[in-house]
Specification:
By secondary structure, the protein is an alpha/beta fold. Helices cover 38% and strands 15% of the residues. The protein has 2 domains: 118 residues, Aspartate Aminotransferase, domain 1 (Alpha-Beta Complex); 222 residues, 3-Layer(aba) Sandwich (Aspartate Aminotransferase, domain 2), CATH 3.40.640.
Length: 373
């Protein structure tokens, strides 16, 4: 007899992971929004030092990491959630807040983990289309909030479209959200956003106990391989609820050590942000020169349509371009897996990485065809 699984296994979509991890050849990896810069030497040393004690469990409360984050952001330790990457915190929020009969509101296309929250919990997902500029339509999202809404997620900057909203828009939106609704502002890429100072969103926490600012060490700190994220919360009760639904020791000892040390090097972080923004400006200009129209990126990646006469043609063009790039040793993400067939999401890499990508793209783009604006 075949194994029988719970109904939610059939509901949960498979996460569209990049297909680059099994490749043994040297590839330009621009598919996963990773930092092209390795961890700082001091961070690597801290991780190596922590390895000596791997016969012991990690601190289950991530005490030192919470302390350093509290010092960095001015948020009490009791209102800081730690996770095995920000995805762990998102999934825990789904477990703690959602159930059959409840609703979650989020934009689409947006981060591909969000549909997992409704599928796993049995809650109803209300997916609100982005506006014409591929940004969150906050007015439309407000209209979808009901007495059944438990969770709203705003991804800012948005993944996969790279677009962002200004602080004033987010603040105005939160002022209109009922207090019974938890709002997670997913800020995984906030350090790359030049619309406002990334620190200004911290002001939201004092005014809104129902808000969490979700951040990560995976992107700007270059620690994807360790998996450590954090949530700055308006209420310590939310942190307690997240911890109740998760396994113990959810943040490993090496991750804690690396994150603690990474926080001590903000000057280096700012330098890496500056390098990424310089590459963003350069790559987007070159994409426009190829006749493409990248979205207004406020992240460490770009998003653009490949064009096409209709949906079928757009999807076919995506397949051809993706195949051509892979043959030339360049890995990017296909828009079809992220909610929009006919688009590409490409991480900004080093200058050399970006040159290889742009040369390959120019080589494989369909000639004499209409590219959608």
């Amino acid at each position: 007899m075949a194994l029988e699984f719970s109904a939610r296994v059939g509901r949960i979509p498979v996460y569209p992971a990049a297909s680059s991890y099994g490749s043994e050849q040297a590839m330009v990896r621009l598919a996963s929004n990773e930092s092209p810069y390795p961890p700082l030497a001091a961070v690597r040393e801290a991780i190596a030092g922590a390895a000596e004690y791997l016969n012991r469990y990690p601190d289950p409360s991530s005490t030192l990491l919470r302390k350093r984050l509290a010092e960095r952001y001015g948020v009490p330790q009791s209102r800081i959630a730690i996770g095995n990457g920000s995805c762990d915190i998102l999934l825990a929020a789904g477990e703690a807040l959602l159930e059959p009969g409840a609703e979650i509101v989020h934009a689409w296309p947006s981060f591909s983990v969000y549909p997992h929250l409704s599928a796993a919990s049995g809650a109803t997902a209300v997916m609100v289309p982005l506006d014409a500029d591929e940004r969150h339509d906050l007015e439309a999202m407000l209209k979808e909030i009901t007495a059944a809404t438990r969770l709203v997620v705003v991804c800012n900057p948005n993944n996969p479209t790279s677009t962002a909203l200004g602080f004033a828009e987010i603040a105005d939106f939160l002022a209109q959200v009922p207090g019974h609704v938890c709002v997670i502002v997913d800020e995984a890429y906030c350090e790359f956003n030049v619309l406002d100072d990334p620190e200004c969103s911290l002001d939201l926490l004092g005014a809104h106990p129902n808000v969490m600012l979700l951040r990560t060490f995976s992107k700007v700190y270059g620690l994807c391989g360790l998996r450590v994220g954090f949530g700055l919360c308006g209420s310590e009760r939310l942190v307690q609820a997240l911890d109740q639904v998760r396994q113990p020791f959810y943040c490993n000892a090496l991750a804690q050590a690396g994150a603690v040390e990474a926080l001590a090097h903000q000057d280096a972080v700012e330098q890496r942000v500056a390098w990424t923004i310089a590459e963003r400006i350069s790559v987007d200009e070159r994409l426009r020169a190829l006749g493409l129209s990248p979205a207004q990126s406020q992240a460490n990646f770009c998003w653009f349509d490949l064009g096409g006469t209709d949906a079928e043609d757009a999807a076919e063009r995506e397949r051809e371009v993706m195949g051509g790039l892979t043959e030339r040793g360049v890995l990017v993400r296909a828009g079809g897996a992220l909610g929009k067939p006919g688009a590409l999401r490409v991480t900004y890499g080093t200058t050399n990485d970006n040159e290889r990508f742009l040369a390959a793209l120019a080589d494989v783009l369909p000639k004499n065809s209409t590219v959608a604006a």
